[in-house]
From TrEMBL:
Species: Algoriphagus formosus
Family (UniProt): Belongs to the tetrahydrofolate dehydrogenase/cyclohydrolase family.
Gene Ontology MF term list: methenyltetrahydrofolate cyclohydrolase activity; methylenetetrahydrofolate dehydrogenase (NADP+) activity
GO cellular component: cytosol
GO terms under biological process: L-histidine biosynthetic process; methionine biosynthetic process; purine nucleotide biosynthetic process; tetrahydrofolate interconversion
Name this protein carries in UniProt: Bifunctional protein FolD
Amino acid sequence: MPTIIDGKKTSQDIKNEIAARVAEIKSEGGKIPHLAAILVGNDGASQTYVGAKVKACHEIGFESTLVRMEDTVSEEELLAKVEEINENPDIDGLIVQLPLPKHISVEKVTDKIKPEKDVDGFTPANVGRMALNWPAYVAATPYGIVELLKRYQIETSGKHCVVIGRSHIVGSPMSILMARNGYPGNATVTLTHSRTQNLKEIAQTADILIVALGKPEFVTADMVKPGAVVIDVGIHRVEDSSKKSGFRLIGDVKFDEVAEKASAITPVPGGVGPMTIASLLYNTLLAAERKVY
Ligand code: GUN
């Protein structure tokens, strides 16, 4: 059986480590990390995610501020709110939950966030710093994967890492992080996407397969090399009348059959997902301690 890479436990370990540091900061009379989140509108998933972020802040001793705005808010009003938080010295980190209503430019809003407070790692400054291997806030999902590889001591140097999916928030940064000089890193990376030819043959050569294309159970056992490490970033709800909730969660990887071939694999749920909040909290701690800028 493969090693099951337990993101739930690892994220709890990280939260405990951050909580211990917050306790130290308190005893030293230092600045308590403070995260602000802006939530526009009433999207159910976004409300759940932001609620989980605020709750996690509370659990580990951070301060948090949730700013809610109507989905009819103008772009100017939202930009003004971002600016106000940028200038508020008590707030260390700011996230604007995505997606935003269609009449608001994500680029304009992202670009308005002060890079020093951009704990989502979405601004051009932080993406560029990450690509240069400078100190940076790395986006939550790629950073969570990096931490899982580290804490499970997965060898990456000289390995062939195949990333499926080229999104700005997962696939693209992941390919950069795996290729960079350091650990995890020093891998030979192939970044694949919807136009890639022979995807199956390429995936079969992966020592480390990172799957983030957003298609339920896309990766099947015949696409995976025996002994590969498989990281599944996908999360999808499927109806399941045998569950009390009426649904269950599945990933981009057909878990049962791929697990039989892999040396290590992340489950869904309980793999990459829980790591994202831990990453956000870690970035907020770095912001409060001025460790990046
Ligand atoms: N929407 C989905 N994922 C994220 C995230 O990591 N940060 C923000 N701000 N919005 C999201």
